[in-house]
Amino acid sequence: MAPPTTSTIFLLFSLLILIVKSQPSDLESECANRWIYIKPLPPQFNLDLLSNCSEYQLFENFCPYIANHGLGQKTHNKSRSWYRTDPHMLEIIFHRRMLEYPCLTSDPNNADAVYLPYYAGIDALKYLYGPEVNSSFQHGIELFKLLTHPDSLAKYSVNTWVKNQGHDHFVVMARPAWDFTQPISNDPPTWGTSFLELPEFYNITALTLESRAYPWQEQAIPYPTSFHPPSLALFDMWLNRVRRSRRKTLMLFAAGGGISTSPNIRRSIRLECENSTGDSNKEYSNICEFVDCSNGICEHDPIRYMLPMLKSSFCLQPPGDTPTRRSTFDSILAGCIPVFFEELSAKKQFQWHLPEEKYDEFSVFIPKEEVVYKELKIVEVLMNIPKSEVKKKREKLMEIMLRVTYRKHGSSLGLRSKKDAFDIAIEGTLERIKARLKEVAVQ
Predict the structure, then answer these.
(1) Each residue of 139-175: b (16+ CB within 10 Å) or e?
(2) How far, in Å, CA of 317 to CA of 244, rounded?
(3) Spatial separation of the C-alpha atoms in residues 433 and 103, rounded to whole Å
(4) Backbone angles phi, psi at 381, to 5 degrees
(5) What distance in Å separates the CA atoms of residue 282 and residue 280, rounded to the nearest whole number?
(6) Are 206 and 140 contacting, i.e. CB atoms less than 8 angstroms apart?
(7) What pLDDT digit, counting tens, does each position of 28-58 carry?
(8) Cβ-contact 2, 72 below 8 angstroms
(9) Which of 265, 294, 327, 375 is 20 to 30 A from 99, comparing alpha carbons?
(10) pTM for this one?
């Protein structure tokens, strides 16, 4: 697929940005404390980056996933809700949704928050996989220069930074925070860029796919899945399918890895699953199913894992290279109860969307140390959960499903009246910025 031209993409965004030019007076009360100003940035910080989508040899060609404003191509021609979405395109998805946010203002002085439409994760590719791998400490420097010393062009000349020194600014970074936290002093450089380590950006709010154990700037928000319904009717259709699904498999493990000879949770899960092959009981015809997603074969093919998830009661969510997994949100979509093995996999991550005190209502927690070193059997733990409790957990999953779903841009008014992952992320950001500004005011 040929890379999209910058002029084509720029035209689309230019047409959409016209909605910012005026604000109906009846929004004044509804938008109190919710006004957001989109900081105009030169295209080198967003749209121009998309024209390089096939240039990183060590990173997959992401040109096909730019389609449909970051949702990717449809899974098939007649699909209305399902796309081959790449989570790293969340910056594009978020930018598009921001353009239809109802409380945009064209006056930064009236704004409660400032959104930076900077594709930080995509820009990071040149430091992670490209020619500037030895200059990773420079990631973000050019952006900071623009924010503090605006371009002379009228469009970029407004200095939004000076008012609150960046405390009211936020940006989406569609990678784990670990990818942006290489110490500036590292010599030679190791993995990651130093964006979140730069003192210049200590004050911003960064929405990432995963946060550190002790985050300062960042807050984790849900990975985008492949499901982006355009209407409430289509969302309800999927909800009904999840509710009616016959679940004849006790537990599912959809992942790669687990073949190491050293003790680890993925290896323990895979061995237990393999040893359970062919087992059954009165309720389940299959105790464990393993969906091999090695070498990324599942990443853009949701049919591979969503159908098995719909047929399973529990979905195992062990940590991988980092604690969190997109699969957590796929399993919620499928009504497959997630089973976590460490708290940093979700409970300590997505508090805005999945409040920490609610996890027992929709998930199961089994400490990985109990499984790896004390030979606790996952099957036995899950089989001992009463049917009534399993039913309640699944009902809770269906209740929270929209909270972790990014609906399609331009969706129906009915679906817009419900809060999805984007809406909750914006609410959380505004509250966080408000609290930060109060702290700064009393210092």
Answers:
(1) bbeebbebbeebeeeeeeeeebbeebebbbbbbbbbb
(2) 23
(3) 16
(4) -60, -45
(5) 7
(6) no
(7) 889 999 999 999 999 999 999 999 898 876 6
(8) no
(9) 327
(10) 0.92
At residue 22, the pLDDT reads 46
Q: Which residue in this structure is represented by tokens 């979700």?
A: 346
Q: State the Rg of the chain over Cα.
A: 22
Q: How far apart, in whole angstroms, are the C-alpha atoms of residue 17 and residue 111?
A: 16
What is the average pLDDT across 84-94? 97
For residues 116 and 169, is the Cβ–Cβ distance under 8 A? Answer: yes
Q: State phi, psi for 165 to the nearest 5 degrees.
A: 55, 35
What is d(CA 51, CA 331) in angstroms, rounded to the nearest whole number?
Answer: 33
Beta-carbon contacts of residue 212 (< 8 Å; ≥ 6 apart): 177, 178, 181, 218
- What the block records as the tokens of 414 is 């009915």
Q: What is the pLDDT of residue 19?
A: 46
| DSSP bridge partners of 33 | none
Answer for the pair 178, 210: CB distance below 8 angstroms, yes or no. yes
327-334 vs 303-310: helix crossing angle, rounded to 10 = 50
Cis? peptide before 188, omega within 30° of 0: yes
Convert the pLDDT of each residue in 118-152 to its tens digit. Answer: 999 999 999 998 888 888 899 999 999 999 988 76
pLDDT at 58: 67
For 315-335, how does the pLDDT look when each residue is reduced to its tens digit (9 = 90+)? 999 998 889 999 999 999 999
* 35 or 261, higher pLDDT: 35
In the sheet that holds 364-365, the strands lie side by side as 286-292, 249-255, 312-317, 337-340, 364-365
